């Protein structure tokens, strides 16, 4: 091959790679947009009147007038054609106004109590257990770790009955404590923290031990501050899982509406309207439930991604 042939082949090779990169980028952008469609339609339909949700669920572009009334002076529902079309709709607040008529503030408060308390306890217990398994070489260390991993393979629904029986014997059914203490630690959090702690060089702790630091001092003053990415990921996972927890709260709390969280409270809306589910009200409640999690993720997404990367490190 002559030098002139090589001069032509190199630009062609770079041009081909560039085309592949552009196509791949366009595919990823398209995939990302498709992933946002359900959330966008959920938010859009929460601001529609019920007939518009039923006849034009695909419309997502809000146009004036805003805050339209969903009912006529006689109390009848406005036809879908008056407030919506194939692509555009006039935003209404009926869904959010109707949701506010329920015990939403109490459910919201309970969700915060459960999520914050359980997240704090999980971060504390999971990090302590993960550090012990990563650094303290006691007899049966690996066996304990494999048992913890084994619990991750057991479907959560299998543990509901044993948990219910234990809480009943302890007199914790129908209480905040029953929900919080039964979910105060989880196997995934222990696994995540163990993987992260094993990525920290042991020489750092050995230097601290030479200076006379105890194991707890090293953990709280040296190791734990270095584990910010994993702690943040664990915090987001725990908060998200607890915030969306429906089954555990249902089993432990039962019919005590003053202790329900948002998912359990919103699920009861399906039984409030007879055979017809008023989708604009249900979707408005779903948006209210999802919003705190979305804000939390966007604020800490960098730490979230960094923390997840450590789950694949050496075990």
Characterise this structure:
This protein is mainly α and 315 residues long. The protein has two domains: 94 residues, no CATH class; 215 residues, MetI-like fold (Orthogonal Bundle), CATH 1.10.3720.10. It has 15 helices and two strands. Strands 1-2 form a two-stranded parallel sheet. Strand 1, helix 3 and strand 2 form a beta-alpha-beta unit. Helix 5 packs parallel to helix 8, helix 5 packs across helix 9 and helix 9 runs antiparallel to helix 12. The two termini are 51 Å apart. 27% of the residues are buried.
User: How many domains in all?
Assistant: 2
The SS-based structural class is mainly alpha
Task: Give a count of the beta strands, DSSP E runs of length 2 or more.
Answer: 2
Per CATH, what is the topology of the largest domain?
MetI-like fold
Gross morphology is: flat
Low-pLDDT runs: none
Number of helices: 15
In terms of DSSP E residues, the strand content is: under 5%
**Proportion in helices:** 55-70%
What is the highest CATH level, the class of the largest domain? Answer: Mainly Alpha
Going by CATH, the architecture of the largest domain would be Orthogonal Bundle
How do the strands line up in the largest sheet?
A: 1-2
The rounded distance between the terminal residues' Cα atoms is 51 Å
What kind of sheet is the major sheet?
A: 2 strands, parallel
The radius of gyration computed from the alpha-carbon positions, rounded to a whole number of angstroms, is 26 Å
Order of helices and strands: HHEHEHHHHHHHHHHHH
By CATH's scheme, which homologous superfamily of the largest domain applies? Answer: MetI-like
Mean of the pLDDT scores?
Answer: 83
């Amino acid at each position: 091959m002559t030098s002139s042939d090589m001069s032509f082949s190199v630009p062609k090779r770079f041009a081909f790679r560039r085309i592949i990169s552009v196509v791949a980028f366009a595919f990823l952008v398209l995939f990302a947009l498709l992933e946002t469609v359900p959330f966008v339609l959920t938010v859009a339909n929460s601001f529609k009147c019920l007939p518009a949700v039923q006849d034009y669920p695909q419309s997502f572009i809000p146009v004036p007038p805003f805050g339209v009334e969903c009912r006529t002076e006689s109390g009848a529902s406005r036809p879908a054609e008056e407030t919506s079309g194939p692509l555009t709709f006039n935003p209404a607040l009926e869904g959010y106004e109707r949701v506010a008529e329920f015990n939403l503030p109490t459910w919201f408060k309970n969700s915060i109590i459960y999520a914050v308390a359980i997240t704090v306890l999980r971060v504390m217990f999971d990090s302590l257990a993960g550090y012990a398994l990563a650094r303290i070489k006691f007899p049966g260390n690996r066996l304990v770790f494999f048992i913890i991993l084994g619990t991750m393979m057991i479907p959560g629904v299998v543990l509901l009955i044993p948990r219910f029986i234990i809480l009943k014997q302890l007199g914790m059914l129908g209480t905040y404590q029953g929900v919080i203490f039964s979910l105060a630690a989880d196997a995934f959090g222990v696994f995540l923290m163990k993987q992260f702690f094993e990525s920290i060089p042991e020489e750092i702790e050995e230097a601290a031990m030479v200076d006379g630091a105890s194991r707890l001092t090293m953990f709280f003053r040296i190791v734990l501050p270095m584990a910010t990415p994993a702690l943040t990921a664990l915090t987001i996972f725990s908060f998200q899982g607890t915030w969306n927890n429906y089954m555990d709260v249902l089993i432990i709390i039962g019919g005590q509406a003053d202790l329900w969280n948002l998912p359990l409270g919103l699920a009861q809306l399906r039984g409030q309207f007879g055979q017809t589910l008023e989708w604009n009200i249900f979707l408005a409640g779903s948006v209210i439930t999802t919003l705190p999690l979305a804000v939390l993720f966007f604020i800490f997404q960098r730490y979230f991604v960094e923390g997840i990367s450590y789950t694949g490190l050496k075990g």
